[in-house]
């Protein structure tokens, strides 16, 4: 059992909300989950198994979900004490 941080290299297309979720086969066969959510720095790879598992470059460990977003203009209000 253990955790590892897999770098995402800041992948996030402009104007999108990007999140990552576990792949079903990895979770069901190897008790491995993705503990991350919104991508910024990296992905937390979380093992719930006592067996060793080596993640090799190119191995599909997660699913990337990209949603288009629109950020509205925000006005900051001043409050009196």
Q: Judging by the overall fold, what is the CATH architecture?
A: Distorted Sandwich
| Contiguous runs where pLDDT drops below 50 for at least 5 residues | none
Instruction: Return the average pLDDT rounded to an integer.
Output: 77
User: Would you report the number of β strands?
Assistant: 5
Sketch the major β-sheet: 3 strands, antiparallel
Provide a count of the helices: 1
Structural class: mainly beta
CATH class placement = Mainly Beta
Strand order of the largest sheet: 1-4-3
Query: How much of the polypeptide forms β-strand, as a percent range?
Result: 35-45%
Q: How would you describe this protein?
A:
The chain is mostly beta strands and 81 residues long. The chain has one domain (2-68): Deoxyuridine triphosphatase (dUTPase) (Deoxyuridine 5'-Triphosphate Nucleotidohydrolase, Chain A, Distorted Sandwich), CATH 2.70.40.10. It is 9% helix and 36% strand. The chain has one helix and five strands; from the N terminus they run E-E-H-E-E-E. The protein has one helix at residues 24-30, and strands at residues 2-7, 16-22, 32-34, 42-47, 62-68. It has a three-stranded antiparallel beta sheet with strand order 1-4-3. Strands 2-5 form a two-stranded antiparallel ribbon. A hairpin with a 7-residue loop joins strand 3 (32-34) and strand 4. The chain is elongated. The model has no long low-confidence stretch (mean pLDDT 77).
């Amino acid at each position: 059992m253990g955790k590892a941080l897999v770098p995402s290299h800041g992948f996030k297309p402009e104007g999108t909300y990007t999140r990552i979720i576990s792949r079903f086969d990895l979770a069901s066969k190897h008790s491995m989950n993705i503990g991350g959510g919104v991508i910024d720095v990296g992905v937390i790879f979380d093992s719930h198994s006592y067996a060793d598992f080596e993640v090799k470059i190119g191995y599909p460990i997660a699913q990337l979900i990209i949603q288009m977003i629109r950020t509205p203009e925000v006005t900051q209000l001043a409050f009196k004490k």
